[in-house]
Amino acid sequence: MAIKKQSSDPAGAARAALWLIYGEDEFRVKTAARQRVDELCPPADQAFGLEIVNGSVANADEAGAALKRCLGALRTRGFLGGRKVVWLQDANFFADSQTLKGNVLKEHRDAFARELKKGLGADVALVISAFKVDGRSAFAKACKDLGELTPFERPEKSYQQEGPARAWATECFQRASLRAGGEVLEAFLDRAGYDTRQIAQEVGKLAIYLGDRKELRLDDIRLLVAPAHEAESWDLPDAVGRRQLAEALAICRQLLLQDPKSCVGLIIGLEARCRELTLHRDALDRGWLRLVERGEWKNAEWRSAPDVDAAFSVLDKDPRKTHPYRTAQLAQQARNFTRAELQRGLEAVVVAHETILAGASAPETLLELLLLKLLRPVKP
């Protein structure tokens, strides 16, 4: 999330002096920096109005040289006295790393910050795109005082990447004038993954394929978007919870190809999911839990009452402490099954687990048979 939002108003852009666009999401950093540069200096004027300084360096001396070139460009007047835009591009030395650290580099950065504080001039603008930036440094503080900071950080854990990836995919679809419903969007993210560059490229492919049609369908996703990542162990329980037999079988086979010895672990995961869905199905039936529509999404809300507190107090983990988004997912999956189906499914999983441990059947075949039992079509 940006500390200060970028202005899409060119007149507003002209009044600012400096933009620092940084973060580990390299694709979005480069895209946003290019967009800002084009707003400040239209492509037709860039031959004379734009100067680019390469900030990708290998050591402290090269970093110092790049900063000196940047300062020199800022002090040089634009062609025929016009506006001058300087772009310090792909800078990799504003946060210490194993290859770029030490007192010499810090001195170069501090000296650069002092020069920035003196001002850039009325007809000069500076755009800096960087990988990482130490927010405590004098350079970062100077940039914050002079202009706008726009970070594009990439969360370390996969479950934290899902929300930003969904927002980025939605933005990409809107820019391409494509409409993707909630189910289609989830299927797209399941296949494309959470990398922003990959998401943008896959949306571009879909836009070319659809032509004048703007409504995306699940068949379009399955046809054009190739899986961009290895299957994870939790993908299988999620496919089972969505009651998608073909998807569950495909994920199962992929997981077994990745790790042929993972059968027991996968069955343990299915057993845990059956227990979770049974609990949430029961809570829905009793009125302890409900799903509330919030636009295209559903939120989960627990009822507060003594009987609810008493029921959950005996459990090792209170399900009400689970993140609301995850609770909503489990509740929606639980609605795909009856309580009787979940009970029979749990019994089938336990039997399959015991059979695999006894070595009485081929684990791969037994796992596929289990999926067929769990997800066989419901009779009318």
Structural overview:
By secondary structure, this protein is of the alpha/beta class. The chain folds into 3 domains: 10-151, P-loop containing nucleotide triphosphate hydrolases (Rossmann fold, 3-Layer(aba) Sandwich), CATH 3.40.50.300; 158-224, Orthogonal Bundle (Helicase, Ruva Protein, domain 3), CATH 1.10.8; 235-286 and 325-375, Zinc Finger, Delta Prime, domain 3 (Up-down Bundle). Helix content is 56%, strand content 11%. The protein is built from 17 helices and 7 strands. Strands 2-3-4-1-5 form a 5-stranded parallel beta sheet, with helices on both faces. Strands 6-7 form a two-stranded antiparallel ribbon. Helix 5 (103-117) links the parallel strand 3 (84-91) and strand 4 (124-130).
Sheet with most strands: 5 strands, parallel
Rg measurement, Å: 27 Å
Mean pLDDT: 84
Number of helices: 17
Helix and strand content put the structural class at alpha/beta
**Proportion in β-strands:** 5-15%
Shape: elongated
The H-level CATH homologous superfamily of the largest domain, spelled out, is P-loop containing nucleotide triphosphate hydrolases
Please provide the count of β strands: 7
State the distance separating the first and last CA atoms. 49 Å
In the CATH hierarchy, the third-tier topology of the largest domain is known as Rossmann fold
Determine the fraction of residues in helical runs and give it as a percent range.
55-70%
The CATH class of the largest domain:
Alpha Beta
What topology, given as strand order, has the largest sheet?
Answer: 2-3-4-1-5
CATH architecture of the largest domain: 3-Layer(aba) Sandwich
Overall number of domains: 3
Topology as a string of helices (H) and strands (E): HEHHEHEHEHEHHHHHHHEEHHHH
**Low-confidence runs:** 1-15
